[in-house]
Amino acid sequence: MANEEMFRRWNEQFAAGWVRMQPRLDAQIAPLAEPLLDEVEKGETVLDVGCGCAQTTLALAERVDPEGHVTGIDVARPMLEQAEERARKRGTRNVDFVAADAQTHPLPENTVDRAYFALSPAAPTASVSETPPPAQARRLARCP
Ligand SMILES: C[S@@+](CC[C@H](N)C(=O)[O-])C[C@H]1O[C@@H](n2cnc3c(N)ncnc32)[C@H](O)[C@@H]1O
After folding, report:
1. Residue 14 pLDDT grade (very low, low, confident, very high; cuts 50, 70, 90)
2. Which of 8, 106, 115, 134 keeps 20 to 30 A from 99, CA to CA?
């Protein structure tokens, strides 16, 4: 399995702390992620790589609402459970979450308008969003 160590660390070592500290971490991440959200347009389809507990995923979902859609992908199941719970509580319907390694998970070609990498070690050279996405993001997200 690719990124086996990353998978183990995030699931066994870091995830519980991220879930517990989620409100505080959200407050720290939001100012970094928010300027990037302005680029997103209603109706777009967005991939949030390393979505964690979905701070950015849910903000993206609001931006693209109502026709757009956001998929969050992450290796850490405890964080995805928290993400799903948050989406359910908010009544956010235009998101889904995938538990997988973003570097190897097969995605259909050209189905994503943008890829976000908010502090994601899945894409160390693309820690901010870019439009058009950088080559690495295009490979990961399979977008044009
Ligand atoms: C620093 S956290 C960022 C969380 C989130 N982007 C946010 O804004 O709250 C990094 C996330 O990347 C995930 N991650 C690390 N390697 C990954 C990979 N290869 N594929 C998918 N997710 C990965 C971790 O599980 C973790 O949730």
Report:
1. very high
2. 134
Query: Domain of 102?
Result: 4-141
Is the pLDDT confidence value at 126 over 50?
Answer: no
pTM of the model: 0.86
Q: How many residues does the chain have?
A: 144
CATH assignment of the domain containing 119: 3.40.50.150
Who contacts 102 (Cβ-Cβ below 8 Å, separation ≥6)? 49, 50, 73, 74, 75, 120, 122, 123, 140
